[in-house]
Amino acid sequence: MATYSVNTGKHATLTPNVVDAITFNNPASFLLLTNRTTSGATIYFTFGDPNKGVTDPVVAGDDTYSLGIGQTISLPQDGTAILLKLISSQAQAYSAQVI
């Protein structure tokens, strides 16, 4: 698992079948997640309050969210810290930001 702690944004590429865990320390109203690739595979993710624990996602697993190739999603947040966990079956470039 690759683990990161950032304030406002993380831009990286997933290693196939390895979870990236990103803790956003700044309070946020929105979490923006982009699958920056134009080919490849879906990114699966889970997110939540880092103090309450967040389940690791699995590729095409139950109780995960999915983000297709070239898609962006905006998720409203409650102003607390966020733990985001991502996985894909292929190397996928992503950007994750809080605002």
Could you walk me through the main structural features you see in this protein, from its secondary elements to its overall organization?
It is built from no helices and nine strands. The protein is mainly β and about 100 residues long. The strands form two sheets. Strands 1-3-8-5-6 form a five-stranded mixed β-sheet, with no helix packed on it. A four-stranded antiparallel β-sheet has the order 2-9-4-7, with no helix packed on it. The radius of gyration is 12 Å and the shape is globular. It starts with a strand and ends with a strand. The relative contact order is 0.40.
Helix coverage percent: under 10%
Low-confidence region ranges = none
Kindly state the mean pLDDT as a whole number? 96
Which sequence of SSEs, written as H and E, runs from N to C?
EEEEEEEEE
- Please state roughly what percent of the residues sit in beta strands, choosing from under 5%, 5-15%, 15-25%, 25-35%, 35-45% or over 45%: over 45%
Total of DSSP H or I helical runs spanning 4+ residues:
0
Shape: globular
Largest sheet: 5 strands, mixed
Query: In order across it, which strands form the biggest sheet?
Result: 1-3-8-5-6
Given helix and strand content, the structural type is: mainly beta
Radius of gyration over C-alpha positions, nearest whole angstrom: 12 Å
Q: How many β-strand stretches?
A: 9
Quick summary of this structure?
Helices cover 0% and strands 48% of the residues.
